[in-house]
Write a structure and sequence with these properties.
Blueprint lengths: L2 H15 L3 H14 L2 H6 L8 H17 L2 H19 L14 H19 L7 H15 L1 E6 L8 H11 L6 E4 L2 H10 L3 H9 L14 H7 L5 H12 L4 H8 L2 E8 L7 E4 L8 H8 L12 E3 L8 E3 L6 E3 L1 H4 L3 H8 L1 E8 L16 H27 L5 H12 L6 E4 L16 H15 L3 H7 L1 H24 L1
Parallel strand pairs: 1-2, 1-8, 2-3, 8-9
Antiparallel strand pairs: 3-4, 3-7, 5-6
InterPro entries: Acyl_Trfase/lysoPLipase, NTE, PNPLA_dom, Triacylglycerol_lipase_N
GO molecular function: triacylglycerol lipase activity
Keywords: Hydrolase, Lipid degradation, Lipid metabolism
Length: 487
């Protein structure tokens, strides 16, 4: 074996066994250097980027800042951002090097951030702080914001804790988070905690209550038509999350929780429960409904807390409707998230056991991967067609099951940026088992390791949104200080 191949294997081993992002990145950088990818990042010229125009816009931003021309800088930013957004979001920019894409992309984003901060922090003649705040809020509304979506996946979904911890440690965890089934439990745990409690949640995972799955006796399974004890699942949810409304959760965490639930009636549409659409609904009941896998747990009637004559007792919400696992009809509620929260970039953490075998790693290329994608696409289309034909001609007894199968087959399971649980067949026996402490640590580490290669892309493609947020926060404080000074 040649020295370069041996070194490559050693570096790949270091990356696979890394216990922190810093250790992973150090090995990845050496591997990129060995493969010549660092040189690729430095090279000028690429079919993926309009380099000449990008550099012209960078020069124009620098010139406006040097001249103190804030209005001219706004015009340059407006043109530059919308001219280059599409190409900067191209996933092909992030499949060559492990450590990131062309340095030109970082240089351009540096200039955009410097320019936004310049407009935020420098006086503009005839423009008050309040007017500037409105200007930034309007621009942010047009630009949009990122959202994190956590799929279902039973015990595999524990890996979402590792995904979110890796993002949180790098200060990349979005404020808008959605979850289905097990993803709803993790999303709920994050979006019901303030920053101090969230830090403890991520740094001391041993405190997590792990007992969620309890099988019923065979006689009860036959009688009740579901396999697991829903009361024990609710105890698990409340032990880790508590019981509060969506509105209360947002007030505590500052984050927007979204939980996807599916209807039991075929004529009803899936619902995305959030502080905007259902503020009084209790988070624990929504999560319980989102975990109600048909045949495993029974359907759920949502609960809500209405302040009425000083009482805070929970009452049924839409009492005539019952809801099941959000993964059935809307594992990733992409369109509803976009409409409700103006989402411009979706980060998907995918752990569904029936999905992960067919997902290819973003760095994998070649004829074999292309053939896998083609076969998967063909199988998907044939299954969807067969289910569509069968459900229309089936008996009413089995039609709901076929409707659910068709919905699971035809929905989208990926987003703009995808992080996925690796396909490891030997872990499938753990799918419906309570994890040991060792299993918990293993799933979290798998989530972190799956996230680290995606961090450069996530950091770049959410950077402008994060700059908007930072500028708006500073402008709010400036406005508050100005008002306090005038009183």
């Amino acid at each position: 074996m040649s020295r370069s191949k041996q070194l490559r294997r050693e570096l790949e081993k270091h990356m696979a066994e890394a216990d922190s992002y810093e250790h992973w990145y150090a090995a990845a950088e050496k591997l990129d250097e060995l493969d010549g990818n660092l040189s690729w990042r430095e090279e000028d010229g690429s079919d993926l980027l309009h380099e000449t125009l990008i550099r012209e816009h960078m020069d124009a931003m620098r010139k406006c800042r040097k001249q103190g021309d804030s209005r001219g800088l706004i015009r340059v930013l407006q043109e530059s951002l919308y001219r280059h957004l599409g190409e900067l979001a191209n996933p092909d920019l992030y499949v060559v090097a492990w450590t990131g894409t062309k340095y030109l992309v970082s240089e351009f984003l540096d200039e955009v951030e410097h320019s936004m901060n310049f407009i935020c922090d420098h006086d503009m003649p005839g423009v008050t702080a309040e007017q500037k705040l409105h200007l930034f809020r309007d621009a942010e509304r047009v630009y949009g914001q990122p959202a994190l979506m956590l799929s279902g996946g039973a015990a595999f979904g524990i890996y979402h804790i590792g995904v979110t911890r890796a993002l949180w440690q790098q200060r990349l965890l979005p404020d808008v988070i959605a979850g289905s089934s097990m993803g709803a439990i993790v999303a709920g745990a994050i979006c019901t905690r303030n920053e101090a409690d969230l830090e403890r949640f991520f740094n001391e995972p041993g405190e997590i209550q792990r007992d969620a799955f309890f099988w019923l006796e065979p006689a009860r399974i036959w009688r009740k038509r579901h396999a697991m004890d829903q009361t024990k699942l609710l105890e698990h949810i409340r032990a880790n999350i508590g019981s509060m409304s969506f509105r209360e959760a947002e007030e505590i965490s500052g984050r927007t929780l979204n939980i996807s639930v599916s209807p039991t009636r075929t004529l009803q549409k899936p619902r995305l429960l959030t502080a905007l659409s259902s503020p009084e609904v209790l988070v624990d009941s929504a999560i319980l409904a989102s975990c109600a896998v048909p045949g495993v747990y029974p359907p759920v009637t949502l609960q809500a807390r209405f302040s009425e004559k000083g009482k805070n007792d929970a009452k049924p919400y839409m009492p005539s409707e019952r809801w099941i696992d959000g993964s059935v009809h809307g594992d990733l509620p992409l369109m509803r998230m976009a409409r409700l929260h103006n989402v411009n970039r979706t980060i998907v953490s995918q752990a569904n056991p029936h999905v992960v075998p067919f997902i290819s790693h973003h760095h994998q290329r070649g004829p074999g991967i292309t053939a896998k994608k083609a076969v998967t696409s063909l199988m998907h289309a044939q299954l969807a067609t067969a289910l569509q034909l069968t459900r229309s001609a089936s008996l009413s007894v089995v039609r709901p099951l076929l409707e659910q199968a068709y919905a699971m087959t035809t929905q989208t399971y990926l987003g703009d940026i995808n992080i996925h649980f690796p396909f490891r067949p030997l872990l499938y026996p753990k799918l419906l088992a309570n994890p040991s402490r060792e299993d918990l640590d293993m799933f979290i580490r798998i989530g972190e390791q799956a996230t680290w290669p995606r961090l450069p892309m996530i950091r770049d493609q959410t950077r402008i949104s994060r700059t908007f947020s930072n500028c708006i926060t500073r402008l709010k404080h400036a406005c508050q200080g100005h008002r306090a000074g005038t009183e």
